[in-house]
Model the fold of this input.
Amino acid sequence: MKKINLIQATMAIGILIIALSVAYYLLIFIPKNEQAKQEQRKLEIINQTEKEKLKKDAYNTCIKNAHTAYRAEWSNNCEGEVKESGCSMSTEKRNAFTDAYEKNKDRCVTLYK
Done:
C-alpha cells in the first residue's frame, strides 16, 4: 500500500512539474519572446524612417547646393555685363550654365533617390 502511495505521489509530483513547465512556457516565455520581437520590429521601423529622413535631407541639400552654384556662376559671369534689359551673357554661356545645373540636379537624384 505504501509503495502504491509513493508511486502515486511521485507521479503526481512529476505531472505537476510538467504542468508548471508548460504553464511557464505558455504564460511567461512566449509573451516575453513576442514582446522582444515586437520591440525589434519597432526599432527597425524607426531606423528605416530615420535613414529615409537623412536621405531626403541630403537630397534637398544637394539640390540647394546645385542651385546656389548655378546662381553664383550666373552672377559672376554677368558682373560688368549688365545692360538695362539684364545680363548680356551669350546664349552659349547660358546653355552651358543651365546644362551644368541640370547635370548637378541629375547627380543629386542618382545619389539620393
Remarks:
- Helices lie at 2-78, 91-112.
- The two ends are 82 Å apart (CA to CA).
- Strands lie at 82-83, 86-87.
- The chain is about 90% helix and 5% strand.
